[in-house]
Write a structure and sequence with these properties.
This protein is mainly α. It has a domain of 48 residues. It contains 3 helices and no strands. α1 runs antiparallel to α2. The two termini are 26 Å apart.
Length: 72
């Protein structure tokens, strides 16, 4: 998986939205974990990592499966 090259399919506003969601979900995860809600915290953390990966690498596996490309 690592070392593979992914063809970019996430760009523009989509990429910015995913980055913003990653930040928001990270905050939700931290607050949930501090409030002793581990399930919600871990789910939010997993989602944050996923959106952060999409925004950073400009690749989304779901976009690829659906044939969606938001790059310019």
């Amino acid at each position: 998986m690592f070392g593979m090259e992914f063809e970019p399919n996430v760009g523009g506003r989509d990429r910015l939205a995913r980055a913003a969601l990653a930040v928001v979900l990270t905050v939700v995860a931290l607050r949930s974990l501090r409030a002793k809600k581990p399930t919600a915290g871990l789910l939010a953390l997993v989602a944050a990592v996923g959106f952060g990966f999409n925004a950073t690498t400009r690749f989304c596996g779901m976009n690829r499966l659906l044939g969606v490309d938001t790059t310019e």
